[in-house]
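Cross-check.
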Amino acid sequence: MGFSPDNLKGFILALLSSAFIGASFIIKKKGLRRAAAASGVRAGFGGYSYLLEPLWWTGMITMIVGEVANFVAYAFAPAILVTPLGALSIIVSAVLAHFILKEKLHHLGVLGCVMCIAGSVVIVIHAPQEKPITSVHEIWSMATQTAFLLYVASVIVLVFVLIFHFAPQYGHTNVLIYVGICSLMGSLSVMSVKALGTSLKLTFEGNNQLIYPQTWFFMVVVLTCVITQMNYLNKALDTFNTAIVSPIYYVMFTTLTILASVIMFKDWDGQGVGSIISEICGFIVVLSGTILLHSTKDYDRGTPRSIYAPLSPSLSTRLCTSNGESMKHVEEDMVSAEDVCLRRQELY
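Predicted model, tokenized:
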């Protein structure tokens, strides 16, 4: 199947998003270090001098640009193409941390990066073409089809059971509880983001979709899902080691997102069995590379559990991990809640 112009636009935007977001973590961390050196108080211990540091704001702006690019990417390309590419921000961050922050990237970590790139190439080559959509009503028809409504109902039931039954009892001992909640909600947030992004794209092309209530409904769903997703991902990062949360979250989130996209947008309709198998294999290679990259980090197992910063509303759904940093630097470079994504890498 040929690589359509829309797929190409989505692919380029996803790459730019990963590059900007991966670089933003390093820029913000440099800004935090510079601010701490000037004021003598680190952000992790209540310092806010980084708010006056231009380098930190440069990192924030870079991250926002990346998130916007990722949002727009969903309007052009299927989630099965865009979402796995979020893993590339991990590579960008890890490589930049190795050269700029002098944080060692192990040989197996390099292999993990290569696996992520190889898997992403396979996914891109075999990605399905985005079906043309001319109205938000078409998206609404997809969202209200029986199969997807059953998926949404299943997700809502599971989320409520996890929140009200399992979370109070096992949330602080089983990492799958909090991660499961934000992964399930994340799959719905990506579908809503794609619907909203497509509506805005049509509006900018002259076909106004803002006059339809469905567009605003998708916007409300986006906000609801993202807020819930952020809340429980922060709980997971606060309770468990980031090196454990990150790969589990990436596997669950990306898998559920692809499943939701296949059901709602029927991404695999018209594709051959060979292409579908290739996409699945590429996805598995990316997952394996991500897990390998995280498993090779050095970290001090005796370091006290620390509170990690919350995610930004990363609608690209990137992995929230430790930015390719060695855990032995956690205490030294711990960030405050205002440092929105410094500890999120983890994508993305």
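The chain has twelve helices and no strands. Residues 5-39 form the longest helix (35 residues). Passed to J.P. for a second look.
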